[in-house]
Amino acid sequence: MIDLTGKTAVVTGGSRGIGRASALRLAEAGASVIICDRSDFTAGDDACSAEIRRAGGDAESRELDVADSAQVDRVFGEIAAERGIDILVNNAGVLFAGTTTETTDEVWRQQFAVNVDGTFFCTRAVLRAMIEAGKGGKIVNVASISGLRANPGFAAYCASKAALVNFTRQAGIDYASVGINVNGVAPGFVETDLTALYSPEIRGALEGQTPNGKWATSEQIADSVLFLASPLSDHICGEILTVDGGWMVGTPVVVQSA
Ligand SMILES: NC(=O)c1ccc[n+]([C@@H]2O[C@H](COP(=O)([O-])OP(=O)(O)OC[C@H]3O[C@@H](n4cnc5c(N)ncnc54)[C@H](O)[C@@H]3O)[C@@H](O)[C@H]2O)c1
């Protein structure tokens, strides 16, 4: 049983999808959760934190564009001063399709601005706060199998997630000695708004190439986020945990007998 009572967890992009599921899991384990998202908030709040409070948990939402360095420093500075930060889940991400020749300068920059710069800005701000507090901490980056191997037609996304993977490893070793665990989860294909761009045909083909024949739910990814945010991961530093139904280990090959 994972008990995060007394811990404060910040989840970026926590309003929906994998971030929302992670926020719910962390709250179920007893953590106070702060959801930072750039979506439009009604009266400074969003549906996920309201859902956590209705279930008896402690949650609030703050508007944040992770790609805005000054805003990140201000928002994380406020949270650190008000309640401290024990756990950060860098989940906010965007996905643009396109081969290299199809990718415009603007798309390339947008892809990196959120997935790479945003993760760097949030990690840096939280590392500073954690080091000053001197209590260690957990940082979990939501990477992707697209950062571990190429994914045809997603040049900028794959490059951004590959950068995120090695940034995670680097931070993982740089801050291990001060008790801060920086690790990543690399999901395979997950049912969320992000993957709504796949046609039923492509989706079927991708399921066929996945050893367990399924896409993940956001909750299955959130279970690994929770594990890496908990004391169960205390001796794991700079690791990338794939949660992909076996995709990275090997894809099924159909051999036709003569
Ligand atoms: N869905 C998948 O199959 C899949 C697979 C591998 C990795 N991932 C990764 O998981 C993470 C979550 O993806 P998802 O599928 O839940 O997507 P999603 O689109 O459902 O959710 C993404 C969230 O990030 C937020 N966000 C985007 N840009 C932001 C910004 N600049 N500042 C703050 N918040 C921002 C969005 O508002 C949204 O709440 C992403 O990093 C994504 O790359 C997803």
UniProtKB/TrEMBL annotation:
Matches recorded under InterPro entries: KR_dom (IPR057326), NAD(P)-bd_dom_sf (IPR036291), Sc_DH/Rdtase_CS (IPR020904), SDR (IPR050259), SDR_fam (IPR002347)
Domain named Ketoreductase: residues: 7-188
Reaction(s) catalysed by this chain's protein: a (3R)-hydroxyacyl-[ACP] + NADP(+) = a 3-oxoacyl-[ACP] + NADPH + H(+)
Compartment list: Secreted, Cell wall
Source taxon at top rank: Bacteria
A Pfam family per the record: adh_short_C2
Assigned keywords, A-Z: Cell wall, Secreted
Gene3D superfamilies documented for this protein: NAD(P)-binding Rossmann-like Domain
Family the entry assigns: Belongs to the short-chain dehydrogenases/reductases (SDR) family.
Protein name: 3-oxoacyl-[acyl-carrier-protein] reductase MabA
Organism expressing this protein natively: Gordonia westfalica
